[in-house]
Design goal:
6 strands, GNAT_dom, alpha+beta, 4 helices, 160 residues, Bact_Acetyltransf, 6-stranded mixed sheet, transferase, GNAT family N-acetyltransferase
């Protein structure tokens, strides 16, 4: 795992497209956030961990503290190259974000996803990573497309 570099943008854009999970508008939003991290290294809202496989960019996670909360973090984006999915890379990215959140005093991580069928694999991934469905806003994105919020809480006794 390493920090984001400007030269990673083309590979990460390709990965976002290759997953087939995101619309063009979602990809534009994801890339915009990556550009913010690169252009504004002093900002504190977003953090990015980039994963490599055989010295090639293979995925990333974008996360950060939720403003006006005590110890709450959001995971905004996670994507891995489809050619390496199922090899534990996504799980390692999640563990990286979780460890960083705990080191900074985090007590929970939240993330949201769609109820659409195309996100079924994503929801299974979150379940297997120990996240629990906490809330569901019906018809949030559009009629028939709910927003599902997952949460993982850290106990105070967990090792940092």
């Amino acid at each position: 795992m390493r920090n984001l570099e400007a030269t990673d943008l083309p590979a990460l854009t390709r990965i976002l497209q290759a997953t087939g999970a995101f619309t063009e508008v979602e990809i534009e939003c994801a890339v915009e956030l990556l550009e913010i991290v690169i252009a504004q290294p002093w900002q504190q809202d977003y953090r990015v961990a980039v994963a490599e496989n055989d010295s090639q960019v293979a995925g990333y996670i974008l996360y950060g503290p939720v403003p006006l909360t005590e110890g709450v973090y959001d995971i905004y984006w996670i994507a891995t190259d489809p050619t390496v999915q199922g090899q534990g890379l996504g799980r390692r990215l999640m563990e990286q974000a979780e460890a960083e959140a705990r080191r900074a005093g985090g007590r929970m991580i939240c993330l949201e996803t769609s109820s659409q069928g195309g996100y079924e694999r994503t929801r299974r991934f979150y379940d297997q990573a120990g996240y629990v469905e906490e809330a569901r806003l019906r018809d949030f994105y559009k009629p028939g497309d709910d927003r599902i919020t997952y949460v993982k809480r850290f106990s105070c006794r967990e090792e940092i």
